[in-house]
């Protein structure tokens, strides 16, 4: 026990081990790992295209610099390496397009701004880096930096999508995006991803263009009004018909939250909405690639355009 305590104390004195790239270990075989990567994901990549997807631009520049330092004529002996920037551009274009198509068809009543907000959440460098790291991309990246940055991991994931698109076509690449990117929305409230600045104003415009009366907020009940634990429930009505209700610490907060709940019902994105269509259930999913959801900005613009001749005021 004394020996173990002494070794433990020495480990604490030395500090944590310096991060090392997987290739520094003796049992590393890059060719085998490249092959295993595709097999783990159940995808048949062309080996040369997949290798290119993991080559970062900094690695190519570093290799050229090493050759220049050694005096090697790059014209006589060209470097047979191409970075993944072109594949990443193709992969991101396909991924971005498919995500919007999928979201518009799954949430047909959600405003276009909400679709864009969810799309932007799924395509951030942090999100794509998280996915790339967990499918085993990190150890295969050829880059001058270590540990690799989130932006580098993100670029590699886009390049993997681009490589699959080049090798197997659009349908297979879209299936890959559906299987690995869209599931990041599971257990995520998509309504929180889109911040609506003025929910009551948007609700008013939607109801007016639907031929209904303006929303009428009513205080339903309250408790602890004179304490720090005050709670107010506000309901919203239109044409004497109940639409939504929500609690809040103040009347104004409860009113705003009730308006958001009403918009959720209109967009059909309530908490009890149907789950995402993924896996085998999505194999026969028919998507309208030309669909574009209605825009909240257009609704508000139309609302004020219709209102302007009556009030004599400007649109904004």
Short overview:
This protein is mainly alpha-helical and 316 residues long. Helix content is 51%, strand content 8%.
Description of the structure:
This protein is 51% helix and 8% strand. It is mainly α. The protein has 2 domains: 146 residues, Orthogonal Bundle (Ribonuclease iii, N-terminal Endonuclease Domain, Chain A), CATH 1.10.1520.10; 88 residues, Double Stranded RNA Binding Domain. A hairpin with a 7-residue loop joins strand 1 and strand 2. The longest helix has 22 residues. One of its GO terms (biological process) is mitochondrial translational elongation. One of its GO terms (molecular function) is ribonuclease III activity. It is found in: Mitochondrion.
The total strand number stands at 3
- The secondary-structure element order is HHHHHHHHHHEEEHH
- Main β-sheet description: 3 strands, antiparallel
CATH class placement of the largest domain:
Mainly Alpha
Low-confidence runs of at least 5 consecutive residues: 311-316
Query: Number of helix segments?
Result: 12
Helicity range: 40-55%
Count of domain modules: 2
Structural class: mainly alpha
The end-to-end distance, rounded to whole angstroms, is: 78 Å
Global shape: extended
Q: How are the strands ordered across the major sheet?
A: 1-2-3
In round numbers, the mean pLDDT is: 88
Task: Please tell me the CATH architecture of the largest domain by its name.
Answer: Orthogonal Bundle
- Calculate Rg over CA atoms: 27 Å
What is the CATH topology of the largest domain?
A: Ribonuclease iii, N-terminal Endonuclease Domain, Chain A
Report the sheet-strand fraction: 5-15%
The CATH superfamily of the largest domain bears the name: Ribonuclease III domain
Protein name: Large ribosomal subunit protein mL44
Subcellular location: Mitochondrion
Domain RNase III: 34-169
GO molecular function, one term: ribonuclease III activity
């Amino acid at each position: 026990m004394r020996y173990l305590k002494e070794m433990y104390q020495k480990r604490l004195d030395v500090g944590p081990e310096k991060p090392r790239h997987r290739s520094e270990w003796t049992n590393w075989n890059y060719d085998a790992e490249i092959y295993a990567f595709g097999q783990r994901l159940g995808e048949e990549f062309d080996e040369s295209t997949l290798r290119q997807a993991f080559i970062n631009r900094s690695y190519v520049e570093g290799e050229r610099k090493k050759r220049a330092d050694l005096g090697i004529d790059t014209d006589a002996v060209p470097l047979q390496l191409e970075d993944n920037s072109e594949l990443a551009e193709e992969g991101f274009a396909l991924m971005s397009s498919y995500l919007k198509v999928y979201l518009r068809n799954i949430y047909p009543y959600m405003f276009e701004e909400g679709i864009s907000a969810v799309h932007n959440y799924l395509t951030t460098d942090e999100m794509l880096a998280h996915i790339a790291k967990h499918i085993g991309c990190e150890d295969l990246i050829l880059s001058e930096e270590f540990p690799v940055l989130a932006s580098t991991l993100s670029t590699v994931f886009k390049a993997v999508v681009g490589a699959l698109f080049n090798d197997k076509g659009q349908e297979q690449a879209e299936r890959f995006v559906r299987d690995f990117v869209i599931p990041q929305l599971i257990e995520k409230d998509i309504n929180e991803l889109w911040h609506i600045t003025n929910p009551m104003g948007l609700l008013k415009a939607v109801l007016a263009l639907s031929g209904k009366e303006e929303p009428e907020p009513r205080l339903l009940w309250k408790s602890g009004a004179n304490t720090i634990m005050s709670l107010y429930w506000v309901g919203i009505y239109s044409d004497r018909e109940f639409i939504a209700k929500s609690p809040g610490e103040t009347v104004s907060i409860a009113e705003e939250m009730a308006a958001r709940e009403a918009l959720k019902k209109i967009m059909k994105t309530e908490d009890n909405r149907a789950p995402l269509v993924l896996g085998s259930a999505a194999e026969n999913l028919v998507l309208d690639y030309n669909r574009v959801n209605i825009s909240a900005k257009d609704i508000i613009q139309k609302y004020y355009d219709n209102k302007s001749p009556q009030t004599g005021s400007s649109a904004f």
